[in-house]
Amino acid sequence: MAEYYSSFEPQGTRWFLQRVTAAFLVVVLAFHFLLLHFVNHAAEITFAGTTARMSQVGYFATMVLFLVTATFHGVNGVYNALVNQGLEGTPETAVKWLLVVASVLLVVQGVRVAVAMTTLV
Predict the structure, then answer these.
(1) How far apart are CA 117 and CA 119, in angstroms?
(2) Is the CB of residue 80 less than 8 Å from the CB of residue 6?
């Protein structure tokens, strides 16, 4: 029988965070689809409506947390998939830091856009 291998340490921090972020993303993604695809249809989504939604503190905080959580979940998953495929040594370190930098840039730009879409600041 083939050996099972995973770069996630069972019960480790990254393993735990991957599962917590998955659960959070399922709930927030359902909220997103319900609100922006069923309650408001695509033709009804406007810049003014987006600004109004983003100007509510709870919605703004949820969307920023959604961005950070989705970024972590995706990058952590990609990194661990690459490690599981045998990435190690210098290439692993290079990929890890490339993903960290890309994640930080994505979150910074996403927060900049979120702030631009609100009247809270």
Answers:
(1) 7
(2) yes
Residue 2 has pLDDT above 70, yes or no: no
**Domain segments of the chain as ranges:** 13-116
Q: Which residues contact 79 (CB under 8 A, 6 or more apart)?
A: 95, 96, 99
Q: How far is CA 13 from the centre of its chain?
A: 17
Of the candidate CATH numbers 1.20.1300, 3.90.920, 1.10.10, 1.10.287, the domain formed by 13-116 belongs to: 1.20.1300
Q: What is the pTM of this model?
A: 0.85
Compute the distance between CA of residue 20 and CA of residue 38 in angstroms, rounded to an integer: 26
Q: In sequence order, which residues have a C-beta less than 8 Å from that of residue 118 and are 6 or more positions away? A: 51, 54, 55, 60
Structure tokens at 9: 């340490």
Tokens of 106: 């994505």
Q: What is the pLDDT of residues 59-73, one digit of tens each?
A: 999 999 999 999 999
Give dist(CA 121, CA 119) in Å, integer. Answer: 6
Separation CA 64–CA 22 (nearest Å): 16
